[in-house]
Amino acid sequence: MIDIKKIDALEKLIGKLNSFYSEMGALAKKSPNDGLNIFKLNLINSTIKDCNLLLGKEYKPFEDFEIFNKDDLPTNSDVTLILSQYLEALEKFRSDNITIESFSGKWYYKTEKGLSNIQTSPPAKIKNN
Questions:
Q1: Residue 129 — pLDDT band, cuts 50, 70, 90?
Q2: What is the CA radius of gyration of the chain?
Q3: CA nearest 21: which of 89, 72, 69, 117?
Q4: Euclidean distance between CA atoms 124 and 49, whole angstroms
């Protein structure tokens, strides 16, 4: 269960990562081995730092990865790979913190105080138990 501040942070991070992933995916298709410019790298690293804080050790996709090294600029395809893993980790975190409200059939975040009033989409991968 998470609090409202973490829900807000999660929603923002998912939006940012989806945008970066889309942009980097296009660059990776065009020029997969080109190095990323420092401006984009700084924006992506800042977002990854925020993801690491939110996800913690339990959900972080790579135990030994913190951010990209500025001295060794990553390629477009490297960044795309890492962003995809972070998107999956954020979705797992989100999925573990939402539930369907039985009366309405809508999905909401679970908090320590019960269901939030923040509606969300169903999990990307619905498990069949």
A1: very low
A2: 16
A3: 89
A4: 24
Going by pLDDT thresholds of 50, 70 and 90, the confidence category of residue 127 is: low
DSSP per-residue letters across 28-61: HHH-TTSBPPHHHHHHHHHHHHHHHHHHHHHH-S
HSE-up of residue 95 (Cα within 13 Å, Cβ side) = 13
Q: Residue 42 is which amino acid?
A: N
| Predicted confidence band of residue 1 (pLDDT cuts 50, 70, 90) | confident
Give 40-77 pLDDT, tens digit per residue.
999 999 999 999 999 999 999 999 999 999 999 999 99
Decide: helix, strand or coil at residue 80: helix
Q: How many CB atoms lie within 10 A of CB 49?
A: 12
**Which residue, among 44, 43, 25, 27, has the nearest Cα to 35 in the 3D structure?**
27
pTM beyond 0.90: the answer is: yes
Which distant-in-sequence residues (6+ apart) come within 8 Å of 114 by Cβ? none
What single letter denotes the amino acid at residue 26?
A: A
The C-alpha atoms of residue 44 and residue 76 are separated, in whole angstroms, by 12
